[in-house]
C-alpha cells in the first residue's frame, strides 16, 4: 500500500505540472482561437533562460524566477500575439497550425544556438527539504508544484469569471467587433492572454526541468501530455483541464509502477498520454460545419498534362545527367530527396487540395518501408502491396475520427504518429530494439536494379508518375470537389456530398503515396530502422512543404531537396545546426499564411519573363511564338483554357461555387492567379 501511495504522489506532482502548462494552452485558445502547438517549446526555451539566469549568471533563484515569469515570458507573449498570431484565429486551421509548428521548430533552433548541447543540471527548489508521510517522502519541489497548480487554477477561474478583464477576454473571441463598440480593446485583451499563457508555459517548464532534464526535445514534446489534458476540457473548461491533467499524471505513474517491463504491454507505458489524447479525440462531439461563408485559398496554377509530362521528362533527363559519375553517398542523397518529394506530394493532395493537416506523413512512409521489408517481394507486385497496405492504414486512421475536422483531426494524426513511433515501430517483430531490417533493391520484369544510379532514376520515374496522377486528379471532377470541400464544407453538405467517406478515400490515397515512397526508400538504403521514421521529423517535413509550396508539385519537389539538404548542412556546420532550424521555423512563420510558398514566386517570375520575352520572340520567330491571349482571363474553365492552348498553364477556379461572370470571395486577381507553372 505504501508503494501505491508513493506512485500516486508522484503522479499528482506530474499531473500538477501538466495542469499548469495545459491551463496556459487553454487560456490562449479560449481567448484568441489559436492553438499554440509551440507551447511546450516556449516552456523549454524559458526553462533554459531560467537556468542561464540562476546558474550561469549567478542570480538569486527568486530574482531569476521573477525576471523569467514576470518580464521575459510576458514580453515574449505580447510580441508573439502582436506580430505573429494576430488575426490568426479567423484564418483556416491549416494556416494557424503551420505557423505555430514553425514557431516550435524555430524555438528548438534558438535553444540549440544559444545553449549548445552540453551537460546542464537544474536543481529542484529546496532540494534538501521534504516531508515524510508514512513510508513516502514528499520533496519540497513536489509540494511546491502541487500548490502552484492549485493556485494557478483558482487564479484563472477568478480572472475569467469574476473580473471585467476576464469578461472582455471571453467576449474578444465571441465577438471582437461588439466588444470594440462597448469600448473594449480586443488586441490588448489578446496580448494579455498570451502574456499570461507564456508565463504559465515558463512555470511548467521550470518545474518539470529538474525531473526530465534540460533537454530540447523532452521538454518540448511533454506538451503533448498537456494537449490531452486540455482536450478533456474541450479547450474551454479549466476545471476539467485540471482534472484531466491530474488523472493523466496518476495514470502514467501507476503504469510505470505496475505494468510489466517486457512484452507488448510494456510498450503502452511511454504512449499513455498519446493514447489518452487519441481516445479523447475519438469520443469528442462532432465538430460543426462552417456556416454561411466560403473561405478559399488561392492555389498555384495547374499546368496541362502535356506541359506536366514535358517537365517530368525534363526532370528525368536532368537527374540522369547529374548522377553520371556521382559517388555512392551523393546518389543516396539524391534518392532521399526523391523520397521526401514523394511524401510531400502526398501532402499536396491531402493539405494543399483537401485542406486537412497531417502530422504523421513520415509514419505512413515508415509503414510502407516496414511492409516492403517484411513482404520480401522486391518487385512491382510487392511495391503495389506496400502502397495498398499503407493506404489501408491511412483509411483505418481516418475511420475513427470521421467526425473530426481541422485542429482535432491534426492532433489525432499527431497522436497516431506518437503511438506508431513509440509502440509499434519499437516492437521486436517490427524494426526491433535498436535493430534494423534489410531490404532488397527493386526488380522490374525480372531485371534487378543493382546500380544506385539506376535505382535513383527509377525512384524519380515513380515521383513523376505520382505527380502526373495528382495533377490529373486535380484537373478533374474529383479535384474540383476537393477544392469545394476545402473552401466550404457546409455548402457541400447541403448539396448532398458524403464528406466522411470522401475524406477516408483522401487519407488512403495520401498514405498510399507516402507508403510507396517508404518502400522505395527501403530498397535504396538496403537497411532501415525506426529512427528513419520518427514522428517528430514529420514537423519539418510539413514546414518545408509549406515554405516551398504545399499546393503545387513544384513546391513538393523543391521541398524534398530542401529537407534532404537540411541534415547535411547541420552535419557539415555543427556550430550552425541550431541556426538552420531557426531559419526553417521562422521562415515557415513568415510564409505560413501563403500555402503556395516560394514556388508561387517562381511562377510569377516565369510569367514576368514570358510577358517581357514574348514580343522579342514574336518579332524573330512569329510562327513558333505562342500567344498569351489564349489563356482566359477572369474565371474561365479548365477545359476552355486547355482547348485554347494546351501548352499553357491554366489556373483552375478555386471554388466550385464560382461563376465565370462574377468574382467569388476566393477568386484572386488575374495577375496573381494566371502564372505559368
Task: Describe the structure in your own words.
By secondary structure, this protein is an all-alpha fold. It is 67% helix and 2% strand. The chain has a two-stranded antiparallel sheet.
Key attributes of the depicted protein:
mainly alpha; 67% helix; 677 residues; 27 helices; globular; 2% strand; two-stranded antiparallel ribbon; single chain
Layout: helices, strands, pairs:
Layout: H1 2-32, H2 39-56, H3 61-83, H4 93-114, E1 130-133, E2 136-139, H5 140-162, H6 164-174, H7 176-181, H8 186-212, H9 216-221, H10 223-232, H11 238-258, H12 272-283, H13 305-322, H14 328-353, H15 361-375, H16 380-398, H17 406-424, E3 437-438, E4 443-444, E5 447-448, H18 452-475, H19 477-487, H20 489-494, H21 499-525, E6 527-528, H22 538-548, H23 553-572, H24 577-591, H25 597-620, H26 638-644, H27 670-673
Helix pairs in contact: 1-5, 1-8, 1-10, 1-11, 2-3, 2-4, 2-8, 3-8, 4-22, 4-24, 5-6, 6-8, 10-11, 10-12, 12-17, 13-18, 14-18, 14-21, 14-23, 15-16, 15-21, 16-21, 18-19, 18-21, 22-23, 22-24, 22-25
Amino acid at each position: 500500500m505504501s508503494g501505491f501511495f508513493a506512485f500516486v504522489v508522484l503522479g499528482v506532482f506530474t499531473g500538477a505540472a501538466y495542469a499548469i502548462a495545459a491551463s496556459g494552452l487553454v487560456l490562449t485558445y479560449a481567448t484568441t482561437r489559436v492553438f499554440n502547438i509551440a507551447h511546450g517549446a516556449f516552456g523549454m526555451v524559458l526553462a533554459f533562460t531560467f537556468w542561464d539566469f540562476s546558474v550561469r549568471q549567478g542570480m538569486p533563484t527568486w530574482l531569476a524566477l521573477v525576471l523569467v515569469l514576470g518580464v521575459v515570458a510576458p514580453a515574449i507573449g505580447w510580441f508573439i500575439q502582436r506580430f505573429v498570431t494576430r488575426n490568426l484565429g479567423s484564418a483556416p486551421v491549416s494556416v494557424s497550425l503551420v505557423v505555430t509548428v514553425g514557431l516550435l521548430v524555430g524555438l528548438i533552433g534558438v535553444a540549440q544556438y544559444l545553449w549548445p548541447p552540453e551537460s546542464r543540471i537544474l536543481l529542484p527548489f529546496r532540494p534538501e527539504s521534504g516531508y515524510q508521510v508514512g513510508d513516502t517522502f514528499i520533496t519540497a519541489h513536489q509540494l511546491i508544484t502541487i500548490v502552484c497548480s492549485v493556485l494557478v487554477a483558482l487564479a484563472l477561474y477568478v480572472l475569467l469569471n469574476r473580473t471585467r478583464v476576464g469578461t472582455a477576454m471571453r467576449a474578444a473571441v465571441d465577438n471582437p467587433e461588439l466588444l470594440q463598440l462597448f469600448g473594449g480593446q480586443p488586441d490588448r485583451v489578446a496580448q494579455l492572454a498570451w502574456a499570461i499563457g507564456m508565463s504559465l508555459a515558463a512555470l511548467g517548464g521550470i518545474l518539470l526541468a529538474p525531473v526530465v532534464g534540460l533537454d530540447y526535445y523532452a521538454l518540448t514534446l511533454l506538451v503533448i501530455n498537456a494537449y490531452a489534458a486540455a482536450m478533456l476540457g474541450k479547450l474551454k473548461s479549466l476545471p476539467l483541464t485540471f482534472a484531466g491533467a491530474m488523472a493523466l499524471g496518476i495514470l502514467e505513474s501507476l503504469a510505470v509502477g505496475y505494468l510489466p517491463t517486457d512484452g507488448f504491454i510494456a510498450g503502452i507505458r511511454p504512449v499513455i498520454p498519446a493514447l489518452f489524447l487519441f481516445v479523447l479525440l475519438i469520443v469528442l462531439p462532432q465538430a460543426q460545419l462552417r456556416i454561411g461563408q466560403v473561405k478559399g485559398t488561392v492555389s498555384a496554377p495547374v499546368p496541362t498534362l502535356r506541359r506536366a509530362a514535358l517537365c517530368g521528362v525534363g526532370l528525368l533527363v536532368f537527374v540522369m545527367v547529374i548522377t553520371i559519375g556521382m559517388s555512392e553517398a551523393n546518389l543516396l542523397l539524391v534518392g532521399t530527396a526523391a523520397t521526401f518529394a514523394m511524401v510531400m506530394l502526398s501532402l499536396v493532395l491531402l493539405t494543399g487540395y483537401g485542406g486537412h493537416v497531417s502530422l504523421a506523413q513520415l509514419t505512413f512512409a515508415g509503414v510502407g518501408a516496414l511492409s516492403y521489408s517484411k513482404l520480401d517481394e522486391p518487385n512491382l507486385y510487392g511495391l503495389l502491396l506496400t502502397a495498398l497496405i499503407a493506404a489501408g492504414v491511412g483509411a483505418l486512421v481516418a475511420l475513427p475520427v470521421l467526425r473530426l475536422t481541422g485542429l482535432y483531426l491534426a492532433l489525432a494524426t499527431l497522436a497516431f504518429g506518437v503511438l506508431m513511433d513509440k509502440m509499434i515501430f519499437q516492437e521486436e517483430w517490427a524494426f526491433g530494439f535498436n535493430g534494423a531490417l534489410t531490404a532488397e533493391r527493386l526488380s522490374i520484369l525480372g531485371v534487378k536494379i543493382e546500380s544506385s544510379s539506376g535505382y535513383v532514376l527509377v525512384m524519380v520515374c515513380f515521383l513523376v508518375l505520382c505527380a502526373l496522377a495528382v495533377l490529373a486528379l486535380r484537373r478533374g471532377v474529383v479535384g474540383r470537389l476537393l477544392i469545394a470541400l476545402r473552401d466550404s464544407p457546409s455548402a457541400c453538405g447541403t448539396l448532398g456530398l458524403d464528406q466522411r467517406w470522401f475524406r477516408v478515400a483522401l487519407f488512403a490515397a495520401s498514405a498510399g503515396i507516402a507508403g510507396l515512397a517508404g518502400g522505395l526508400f527501403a530498397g535504396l538504403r538496403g537497411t532501415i530502422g525506426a529512427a528513419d521514421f520518427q514522428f517528430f521529423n514529420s514537423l519539418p517535413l510539413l514546414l518545408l512543404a509549406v515554405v516551398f509550396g504545399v499546393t503545387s508539385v513544384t513546391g513538393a519537389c523543391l521541398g524534398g531537396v530542401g529537407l534532404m539538404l537540411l541534415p547535411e548542412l547541420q552535419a557539415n556546420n555543427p556550430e550552425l545546426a541550431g541556426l538552420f532550424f531557426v531559419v526553417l521555423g521562422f521562415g515557415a512563420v513568415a510564409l505560413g499564411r501563403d500555402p503556395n510558398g516560394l514556388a508561387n514566386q517562381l511562377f510569377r517570375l516565369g510569367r514576368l519573363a514570358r510577358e517581357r520575352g514574348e514580343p522579342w520572340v514574336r518579332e524573330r520567330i512569329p510562327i513558333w511564338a505562342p500567344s498569351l491571349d489564349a489563356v482566359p482571363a477572369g474565371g474561365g474553365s479548365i477545359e476552355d483554357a486547355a482547348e485554347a492552348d494546351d501548352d499553357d498553364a491554366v489556373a483552375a477556379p478555386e471554388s466550385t461555387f464560382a461563376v465565370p461572370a462574377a468574382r467569388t470571395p476566393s477568386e484572386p486577381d488575374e495577375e496573381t492567379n494566371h502564372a505559368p507553372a
